[in-house]
Amino acid sequence: MTLILNRKDVASVLTMADCMNVVEDAFKELANGTAVLPLRTVIAPPDGLSLYMPAYMKNMGALACKVVTVYKKNPSEHNMPTTIGKVLVQDPATGDVVCIMDGGYLTAVRTGAVSGVATKYLARNDNNQIAGIFGTGVQARMQLWAVCEARNISKAIAYDVSDNALNNFIAEMSEKLNIEIIKAKTPDDVLEADIICTATSSPTPIFDGTKVKPGTHINGIGSHTPNARELDSEIIKRSKFVGDSYEACFKESGDIIIPLNEGVITKSHFYAELGEIVTGKKSSRINNKEITIFKSNGLAIQDVAAAKLVYDKALEAGIGANIEI
Q: Is 100 in contact with 5 (CB distance < 8 Å)?
């Protein structure tokens, strides 16, 4: 029998705190060599992209593959989302697919969770810190949720080019997290924050890196192609740069590829992978004036860790539908 879990099922058992714990464990496995993480496979049918993201973690006993498709004509021609994801969870002992679950909510939470883990290790650990959020979509919500799990946040400052989206974000997240959220009038207003998350679709830098105050930690989430970036060359140059994956950053992330090509930095500016920080192989923040950046590209180990967590919790809760395939 194969367990089928829809989005509602996944959301009912997946919390940010639990997801942060398993994502942290996944990065430990990656750094310690007990994880297998092949490069994602991409197939390009005429109207879209299909991506296959497998991973295996020995200590966690987690084996799965996420299948993600991006079809830009879906909303207009098929009344479907542009991006669709499913996760196939396997039994490592037999290889059998024991669960198929919706991957949309899971992907959003695990992306927030990795920023939460990075914040835990790289941000200052002061009380009553301020979070700054660029963008107010689904991922921005997850970023703020995760930062509030990782640090003592007294208020947040949010900015979006859409005033309506910003108002909805403030109404929803201030109630969910029980914190004050202030509407930023300009990008510069967000730079008052101690911890900044960039979760936009902008292909060009969204703030002036010369204006970022010492001691700030930044989670860069939005840009994910070599020619797009949310962070300018100045802030990359000023920062201690940590990525989820060295390989992914230099293949996919314009945030570091563009300043590298400009000659502003060299490859040695990449300080560490997150797993190296989590396992103590490299030091994290060394003082309260250091600017730190975590660049997230998204790795299959995050999906697989979260999917294993959801599967185990769903079995415990007795939710989902068992289907004979």
A: yes
Q: What is the pLDDT of residues 226-272, one digit of tens each?
A: 999 999 999 999 999 999 999 999 999 999 999 999 999 999 999 99
Annotated catalytic, 66? yes
Cβ count within 10 A of residue 315: 14
Domain 122-297 top-level CATH class:
alpha beta
Helix/strand/coil percentages in the chain, nearest 5? 40, 25, 35
- Dist CA 28 CA 36 (whole Å): 12
Q: Other C-beta atoms within 10 Å of 24: how many? A: 20
Tokens at residue 210, please? 């010369």
Catalytic one of 8, 28, 66, 211: 66
Tokens 């829809």 — which residue? 6
Class of domain 2-107+301-323: alpha beta
pTM: 0.94
